[in-house]
Amino acid sequence: MKSKRWTTSNRVRMSVLSSSLSLTTSTASISQIRRARLVREKQQEEARANTRSMRARLAEACMEIGDTDDLDCGSNGGLDYSDGDRGTIGLPPLDEDNDDELDDELDDAHPVYSKYFQPFMHSQPRSHRRHDTRPRAQRNRHAHQAWQAQLPTLVDRYLAWKHNGPEELAGDHVFHIDVIGVFQYERHVNVIQKADESANAALLRVGLLGCSPSQPRIAIRLECLELYHQIRRRQSSFSLQAMMKVLCALQNITYSHHLRAQLSAAFDVYLNILRSVHTLLKQALGRDGPAWKLRGACPACAFEQPDEPPLSPARLHSMDGNQSAKRLDGSGSADSRLFHSDYFIPHAEVERFKDEVRDRPGEAAREKRFTTCTDNWTAAKAIEENQIQVFEQTGIFVMACRHGFVECIAEMKRSGELAKYGLAAVSRLLDVCGEDQAVGHDVGCASKKTIASSSLGNEVQEKRLKVVVNAFHGFAHNRLCQLENHPLYQVGFGNEDLETCERIFSSSNNTAPLIRHASEFHWKQFLDLHFSQWDSDKYLELSRFLYNNYKQALYIIQTHLAELERFKRSKDITDDDFESWHREELEYLKRCAGESDTTSIATQYVELLEKLNFAEATYGSVTQVPYLTYTPAEFTSTAGLNESARQGTNAINAEYASALRKYQLQLNVVANFERQHNITDRWTPLHREYINAREYTKHRAFIRAVEELEGLVVQRMFELSKANLAKTGYKMRKHISKAISRRSAAIRAALERYNKLAPRQRPPRPKLDYAEVIGYSLLGEFSLLKHSHYEILEKPWALPDNREMMMKYYKLQRSQEEITRLNVEIRRLQAWLDFDGERMKVAAQGFRDSGSSELAFEMESMYAERVRVNDFHRAQLQKIYEMPGYTGCRPIGYQPRVTGDGTGDEYEEDDSDDDDGEAFRLGDTLDRVPQY
Questions:
Q1: Looking at the predicted structure, is the pLDDT value of residue 772 above 70?
Q2: Is the bond leading into 313 cis (omega within 30 degrees of zero)?
Q3: Is 35 left (phi over 0), alpha (psi -120 to 50) or beta?
Q4: DSSP class of 308
């Protein structure tokens, strides 16, 4: 085989002169040189590609977060990626031999963004951003002060733009700004600025609002802000973040947190402008200030007419607390702004009542002379102490009229539902509305005592304020409380259930997820925004409320009247008998509600004597053996008794000493009790007083068994209602399901204890089964089970049929009262429709006469919206006037609508929306639950 030889053709000596003029000589084969060159070219190409990709991503990230100070724009609008002598932005330089080639390639490259992705920047050259060393709270405070200084001008510019359109203006100074709209993002929009106006004033002239008070870079169109404003009013759970993500999706922009902050800043200013405009309009109409919410916000309650029949109570209100609107302590601490709302009672006014009661109404009423029904609601609504410390605002306390208009709100701070919140609301009610008012509260029986014992007690008595329990909550109170405080038995309350606050909270709970971590300013601002829209919706539904209530009252009268007449004829009774049954039951339960002092002393004495007898018997059983016996096996040869014998002896001695000590202690307790109550002769089991007290003690044990059973049933009702509550989380539902299962087992155990005691009563009480107890959802039956002083089972008011008809009788009475109240409210609403429109016309003319044409146009816009709503009210009132059975006044010039053949008798109602009306809720609730 011929050997291979090296020749000069495949081996090369190379001399390379570097940029430093140093000569390097090396020897390599041609194939090595070729491979090295290919590897180097591949590395260089990969480096170029990586560099271009990294620069593109870096520039894109800077543009998405708005940090464009380090990105310079060339004359053609493209990006210059060089950074002076430092090479490319954020990247180390490549080999020096390739720098020029790479720069030439990048100069010819296309921009890294397309026409669908626009960076947030000015077209003007920008200097590097100065690092701001001020604290965030100081920056926010300065920004707020800058906005407030511009607010009057911004209000004027907003009104001019809204009613006159964008202003065409010629000027020398033009600045550029990027604009966010609903469907379009615009770069470098030219805005003309006058010499004496701020940048935001210039922006508002063309329908834009900047995100910064001094040097805005980005502006948002007012149409976009108004869109979110209307969405947020009607869907309180739709957040700023969600809105910004929607805008980014529509404009193909990647969402970033700073975009949400910019929208939040602009939206706050926009709401401030709207509030300023509405304040001017309300002042012109005389409807400004906190008192207006109570004095005239609801025309059906407050717009009284001459010669109308008097109503007693004059107005019906509801108040209650809600713990959903919490706010974490420390949230938004950098935002020191204060929000002023006509809804909220000032904190100082609430604190005026902080020392009048020591705890919330339910807990303040736990004295023996009070009813125990409030304990159920206290346990169900208590807030744990560790939760109170976490939250600064723990909820809100609301008062509203029966038509749903929110009248005042107190923020609950670091506490549960204390009595001071209710007292502050009642104080404002008495100051504004005056005499003969009525308020419903879920613990109204305790609230009535709390208010009477407070500094408002004399005023409440003079102005005849009535405090009752709500209809639905009232059926979880004991029977005595129902007879005294339930609206079904209160003259003049009509069919009103006073559960308005529960409906308000079912809506306001939607705001809770968005205000939990908000600043105090935003917490109050968004609650104010929600309740403002709530009141607008209630005004729109006012005529329908009246129509549904009228229809319900007529239905109850039509059905119950005939049934009651048949029952009275069959039993040979009159309406007076129903009233007397109510009085007899109330008097009986009052007699049974408490113990006399003599009975209480006798019961305590007998209990002490029985303990003494037990201690004496125990001591006698220990000492009945006269001596101890030992066997020889129990002794040892050296130490006497062995260990086991000594331990037995010590145990006997210890038992003897313990029994003697307990006997002597109980003997001293009995002797001390006898001295305190002047008992000279000690009772024995043969004494008549002893026998009577012991029988009564047995009955008290039975009452405790019934109360335990009642409490478990109440808790089960709460848990079942919570299990069906909307938006209850999965974990909470699982927890509630387990609690219901445990509660069912506890109910069965309590039922067994009751059934053991029931036959021993005089007269014997009936035994119960589980299904029957669960059916006691009204809890009225428990009151009859507890007391056995008299033969009440034979009383007419204790018979099931009579009790059912007695309830229908009171429903009939309340329905007739409801008709009377509705006739008055319908007349008030009809008069308001005419007055409201004329008042707005006069106010608009007043603005025009004073030269405020923009405010005149704004008032006319409000008038146009109100005309639309009032026309709907007129149509609903027309339906009421044509309703068979309507007994109220009709307006002057009223003409019934003619349909079909012209007789007017073929009118057909559209009841598609009426079945869901609030008016039927009370009746449906009462019909679904067992009667008592």
A1: no
A2: yes
A3: alpha
A4: P
